[in-house]
Amino acid sequence: MNISNYTAFFHDGSLLEIKHENDKIILSMSSAEMDEEDLKEPIELSNNDRIVGKLHIEGVKNIIVDDERLEESLQKEYDDGQIFHFEIVNNKVNLEIIWGNYPPNPEVDVFSEIAIEGEKIYWENIPDLEDGL
Amino acid sequence: MGKHSRFRGRIIDCRGKIKTVISELPINPFKDPRLEDITHPKAKGRGHYQFKDRETGQIIEYDKGRPNKPGHGAHDHYHRPNPNSTGKYDEYLDGAGRPVPDGSEASHLYPPESVWWK
Fold it and tell me: Could you read off the pLDDT of B43-53 as tens digits, one per residue?
């Protein structure tokens, strides 16, 4: 499955979890609701009609967050990461995330641009991954 | 914006996709005197806007479409955040004001003039 064919459907989807260890980053993600006719190949969707799984980025060379190089680990700092834009260009993942909190945590108004460059990027489809819905 | 309501409902487009249409949503929110632009400066540059109804205080989100993309991301559309949301499953309101999940079809709202699909 080439996830690049479906990145546009992650608009209004979710960045569920970030795991960053050494030079490997795993982003757990969920698309917005999909229509099966938009699938170019047989892909098992979640029970709420979304592409859900983990984006693996190996051999991470560079992480840019809001135009600044990130030297520490990439972390999810808020309850919710709504995906505004997601694309993979060559070996670079570009994300625009609208961060939010749910009660009792305080409201936030944060918009981040994240670019991650790695040597290998692949998608692990996990339709039964917990997506909070 | 409730007092301006004239029509709200769901229509089925030529691909059989259901779209939620609300006539009170403006085609161009930037020219609507009812709305105050409260967009995060960084989000503004990327096409994600927030407006506050000056009278009711209701917030609406407006996402500019990116041409040549599939799905809702290709089209200008609105969301109505649920002011009483407690999580992703009730983050937005549908056209009838009922809580719906983030990323759901029902959370995408359109003014009637802009409903079309490739």
Answer: 988 899 999 99
- Partners of B102 on chain A (C-beta within 8 Å) are 12, 14, 80, 82, 133
Model confidence at B2: pLDDT above 60: no
Q: How many residues does chain A have?
A: 133
Q: How many residues does chain B have?
A: 118
Q: Which of residues 7-66 of B touch A (CB under 8 A)?
A: 15, 17, 40, 42-43, 46-48, 63, 66
Distances in Å between the Cα of A36 and the Cα atoms of A129, B18, B71 are 19, 14, 12
Residue B22, beta-bridge partner list: B8
Place of tokens 């559309």: B77
Size of interface A-B (CB pairs under 8 A): 81
H/E element holding B44? Answer: helix B41-44
Inspect the interface and report whether the beta carbons of A12 and B91 lie closer than 8 Å: no
Contacts (Cβ under 8 Å, ≥6 apart) of B33: none
DSSP string for B73-90: GGS-EEEEE-TT--SGGG
How much is the average pLDDT of B16-45? 84
- Residue A72 in tokens: 């520490």
pTM of the model: 0.87
Decide if the complex's ipTM is over 0.95.
Answer: no
Which residues of chain A make contact with B82, given a CB cutoff of 8 A?
A: none
Q: Are B59 and B48 in contact (CB under 8 A)?
A: no
Predicted confidence (pLDDT) per residue in A16-69, tens digit: 999 999 999 999 999 999 988 889 899 999 999 999 999 999 999 999 999 999
